């Protein structure tokens, strides 16, 4: 009986931090001040309601997020930039799983991890009909709940739902016909427009154009955009190009700082692109020199969005034997 009581007590008190929040994984990145277990122990009352709302995408998640961040920055994480993110997988082996991250940028790390250009303030001309077509494509793909496309992407970048669904098929030729005549305008929007959603959409639209090198240049520049959605879209486009268009050269330099960016989406998209962009021994050495110790920490994270591309980089740079990774990284230090 006494053993039974001990087991019951441990089930209640020995749960992982992630389990206590009701998520499949929880990471705290990047601080040495406090562990995930300690933060959950002290702030479960504010973190758990936020996690439940965020994983279910309920509208109250924003107010709950603000409450939890206020609590964290008034206590253990005072002085740091703090945010919360939760990502729900829609497909694959992790379908339905929700992974949460407490995003931390310490004051001493801001100069390395949050180096972004100033918010654009311009209002260059916008090809409204083209943006209306793009928005109609997005709305239609949501309305018909199109499955993930299996046909190879016919342009430089496609969203996961692609154009396979009959309701989406007509958008592809329309975009391919319209975008080339507006590439100059779209590049200016990415660089100058004050509306971040316009900048983000323009990057995806440019992927339907003909100028591959120009797209690489503007997307690489957008990796320093102050808005995380714009950076996400830029890194996605570059990732698609390095995976499917080996004839185009994608520079590693702009991607490497974003691999330790302030958001999970920064790190995921940059690491994914880097994992495919290593094409020479020189590339391998640059990645190990700049990211090696971070990669060893990333592969211990619970969120597969960061953990898995970090593993792929180490496999490409150091080999498939995990036991050799640390020696491989240490040899470059």
List the helices and strands and how they pair.
Elements: H1 2-13, H2 17-21, E1 25-29, H3 36-55, H4 61-73, E2 81-88, E3 98-105, H5 110-113, H6 128-143, H7 171-178, H8 183-192, H9 196-206, H10 212-221, H11 228-244, H12 255-258, H13 264-277, H14 281-298, H15 304-318, H16 325-330
Parallel strand pairs: 1-3
Antiparallel strand pairs: 2-3
Helix pairs in contact: 3-4, 6-7, 8-9, 9-11, 10-11, 11-13, 13-15, 14-15
In short:
The chain is mainly α. Helices cover 55% and strands 6% of the residues.
Structure characterization notes:
The protein folds into three domains: 16-106, Roll (Ubiquitin-like (UB roll)), CATH 3.10.20; 119-250, no CATH class; 275-333, no CATH class. It has 16 helices and three strands. It has helices spanning 2-13, 17-21, 36-55, 61-73, 110-113, 128-143, 171-178, 183-192, 196-206, 212-221, 228-244, 255-258, 264-277, 281-298, 304-318, 325-330; strands spanning 25-29, 81-88, 98-105. Strands 1-3-2 form a three-stranded mixed β-sheet. The radius of gyration is 21 Å and the shape is globular.
């Amino acid at each position: 009986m006494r053993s039974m009581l001990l087991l019951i007590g441990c089930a209640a008190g020995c749960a992982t931090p992630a389990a206590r929040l009701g998520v499949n994984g929880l990471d705290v990145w990047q601080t040495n001040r406090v562990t995930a277990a300690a933060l959950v122990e002290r702030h479960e009352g504010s973190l758990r309601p936020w996690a439940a709302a965020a994983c279910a995408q309920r509208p109250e998640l924003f107010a709950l997020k603000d409450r939890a961040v206020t609590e964290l920055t008034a206590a253990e994480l005072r002085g740091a930039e703090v945010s919360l993110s939760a990502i729900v997988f829609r497909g694959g082996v992790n379908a339905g799983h929700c992974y949460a991250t407490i995003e931390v940028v310490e004051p001493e790390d801001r100069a390395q991890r949050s180096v972004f250009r100033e918010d654009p303030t311009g209002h260059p001309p916008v090809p409204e009909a083209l943006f209306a077509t793009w928005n109609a494509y997005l709305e239609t793909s949501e309305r018909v709940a199109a499955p993930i496309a299996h046909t190879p992407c016919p342009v430089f970048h496609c969203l996961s739902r692609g154009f396979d669904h009959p309701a989406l098929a007509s958008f592809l030729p329309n975009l391919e016909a319209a975008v080339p005549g507006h590439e100059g305008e779209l590049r200016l929007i990415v660089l100058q427009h004050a509306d971040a959603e316009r900048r983000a959409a323009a990057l995806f639209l440019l992927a339907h154009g003909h100028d591959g090198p120009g797209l690489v240049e503007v997307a690489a520049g957008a990796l320093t955009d102050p808005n995380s959605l714009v950076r996400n879209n830029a890194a996605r486009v570059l990732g698609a190009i390095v995976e499917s268009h080996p004839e185009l050269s994608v520079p590693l330099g702009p991607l490497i700082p974003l691999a330790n960016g302030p958001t999970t989406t920064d790190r995921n998209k940059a690491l994914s692109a880097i994992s495919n962009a290593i094409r020479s021994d020189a590339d391998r050495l640059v990645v190990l020199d700049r990211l090696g110790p971070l990669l060893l920490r990333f592969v211990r994270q619970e969120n597969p969005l960061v953990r898995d591309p970090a593993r792929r980089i180490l496999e490409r740079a150091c080999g498939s034997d995990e036991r050799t990774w640390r020696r491989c990284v240490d040899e470059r230090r």
